[in-house]
Every structure is written in C-alpha cells, then in structure tokens.
Amino acid sequence: MEDFQHQLLIVTGALICFSALLKCIRFMKYTFPHVWSALPQAFFRSLGEWAVVTGAGDGLGKAYSFELAKRGLNIVMISRTLEKLQRVANEIEQATGQKVKVIQADFTRNSVYKNIEKDLEGLEIGVLVNNVGMLHNPLPCRFLNAPDVDENLVNCNIISVTKVCTVCVKSKGLILNLSSGLGTFPCPLYTIYSASKAFICTFSKALQAEYKEKGIIIQVVAPYGISTPMTMHQKPGLITKTAEEFVSESLHYVTFGDEIFGCLAHELLVIASDNL
Ligand SMILES: NC(=O)c1ccc[n+]([C@@H]2O[C@H](COP(=O)([O-])OP(=O)(O)OC[C@H]3O[C@@H](n4cnc5c(N)ncnc54)[C@H](OP(=O)(O)O)[C@@H]3O)[C@@H](O)[C@H]2O)c1
Question: Residue span of the signal peptide, if any (predicted)?
Fold first, then answer.
C-alpha cells in the first residue's frame, strides 16, 4: 500500500512538472516568436494575392486590413457602413500602395452571400479573416433582459463564419476566425455571445483537422479586452490592447496552433486564471 502511494505521488508530481513545462514552453514561444518560429517576410503574400476581412470598417477588422496590406496583400473589406469602408480603403491604399476593394454587406441578413461570392469571383484569396461579430448588449445583462437580437447575433457571429469559409476555403491559405476569451468558458451575463464564440472555437478546430492536409491553416483567435467601438473604446493598458497592437502581435503567431489568445498579455491572463 505504501509502495502504491509512493508511486502515485511520483506520477502526480511528474504530471504537474510536465504541465508546468508545457506552460513555460508556450510562454517562451509567445515571448520570443522570432526565435521560435520566425515567419519569412513574404509569408502572407506567398499564400495568395488577396486577403478578405469581414467587419473591416472599424476596430480589429480595420487593423487586420491595414496590417495585411502592409504585408503586401491586396484587401477585400466587407462591412456594414459603406462610407466608413470607403474612407478606410482610401487610407490603406494611400499608406501601403495596395489595392483595396470594398463590399457592403450586413451579416445579420443571410441574403448577402450570393453577392459576396460574385464580388470575390476570380480573386486569388490567400487570407481570410472572419472578424465580424456583435454583442447582444454593450453592457453585461441577463438573457431575458437583453434586447431581442438573438437571430441577428446568430447570423452575424455564427452563420457569417460558416458561409464566408464556404466561399473562401478552396486550396492552401490562412483562415483566422475571431472568437473571444469569453467563448472559452460559459460566461454568464454574456450568455448568447459566449455561446456563439464557443461555436467558432469548435468549428475552427474541427475544420482545421479536416483541411490541414490540404495546406490550409485555420486558427481561432480568442482575445480578451481590446479597445474598439465594441468595448466603447476602453482605455488601453496592460491587458486592454489597442486594435493595432493586438493585430500586429497576433499575426506573428499564426503558425502557433489551432487556437491562440492573440497576444502575450492575454496568454498570461489565461495561464494566471488557470492557476487560481
Ligand atoms: N473588442 C474586444 O475586446 C474583443 C474581444 C474579444 C473578441 N472580439 C471579437 O473581435 C471581432 C471584432 O471586434 P471589434 O471589437 O473590432 O468590433 P467592433 O468594434 O464592433 O467593429 C466591428 C466592425 O464590424 C462591423 N459590423 C458590425 N456588425 C456588422 C454586421 N451585422 N454586418 C457587417 N458588418 C458589421 C462594424 O460595422 P460599422 O462600421 O457599420 O459599425 C465595424 O466596422 C468580433 O468578432 C468580436 O466579437 C472583440
């Protein structure tokens, strides 16, 4: 009996050390991405000529559009408000010299995909960022007290991801699906948002398993706080990143596996909360 207890303690200790080692390795990867897995300068451009970004008029989508253009891709920006799209498209073209095409679409409506497919026809798409998403309410609230926007939210947060993937998953390339830290656990007071983001995590990981062999990288990005219109431009700080900081950092990690939190600060937040 004593012998068994002794063996059990050794195995438990070994498992704890192994799990700590895995966390350290993960932490090192995020701290020194250039050493660990430096992406060649031309990595993004080598995937194809165009990047498609949904919800591109503001916040993270705007930042993804800018960053991918800086990395040599032409951009298709798809979003709701045409004037905003056109203004950002001009800024990107002037700053980077890349071509930018805009498509106006409201993803709460499921009638938009025929038009999107037609507009994307013939483009060599290398990168897709399924970024569009909405909250049920800007502030946390109980399910029954929230405005009745369930159908819109499901269309915008879930159906858009599956539909745009259907249009764009063809051959090799990179697909980034924006989930949320709040989708990695059942988050009360954000119930339907949290559930919709959990769908994105599961969908992306299963899709990656299906299409890895074809050379398609599918990664789910699950950030915590970022200062954007969605978070009412929360003041940036140690944890809350600006959209530009977050996107430029997270693009270093696109080959780091099928799920990332997107920046070192959010990775550390997850490690710390796992150990509470
Ligand atoms: N910000 C955060 O802290 C945070 C954290 C975790 C995950 N996320 C996720 O990251 C993604 C981007 O978030 P964000 O903070 O950048 O969002 P945002 O500030 O609300 O910006 C979203 C962009 O998407 C567009 N959009 C919203 N609803 C749309 C619809 N129904 N059809 C077409 N376009 C629509 C908006 O269009 P208009 O220009 O017309 O307003 C805007 O350009 C979302 O999926 C969100 O869930 C964000």
Answer: none
pLDDT for position 275: 65
What's the confidence (pLDDT) of residue 75? 98
Report how far ligand 1's centroid is from the alpha carbon of 157 (Å): 10
In DSSP notation, 2-71 reads HHHHHHHHHHHHHHHHHHHHHHHHHHHHHH-HHHHHPPPTTHHHHH-SEEEEESTTSHHHHHHHHHHHHT
- What pLDDT score was predicted for residue 210? 95
The CB of 133 under 6 Å from ligand 1? The reply is yes
Q: What is the mean pLDDT of each run of 10 residues along the chain (276 residues)?
A: 84 83 75 77 94 98 98 98 98 98 98 96 96 94 92 98 89 93 96 98 97 94 97 95 97 95 93 75
Pocket test for ligand 1, best of 52, 54, 60, 194 (most atoms within 8 A of CB): 60
Residue 156 confidence (pLDDT): 98
- Yes or no: domain 40-274 corresponds to CATH 3.40.50.720: yes
Output the residue whose Cα is nearest ligand 1's atom 2: 226
107 lines ligand 1 (CB under 6 A): yes
Neighbours of 123 (CB within 10 A): 16
- Atom 36, ligand 1: which residue's CA is nearest? 55
At residue 82, the 3 state secondary structure works out as helix
C-alpha of residue 25 to centroid of ligand 1, in Å: 32
The pLDDT value given to residue 168 = 81
Domain spans in the chain, listed from the N-terminal domain onward: 1-31, 40-274
Catalytic residues, which ones?
193
Cα 70 to Cα 244: distance, rounded to the nearest angstrom: 12
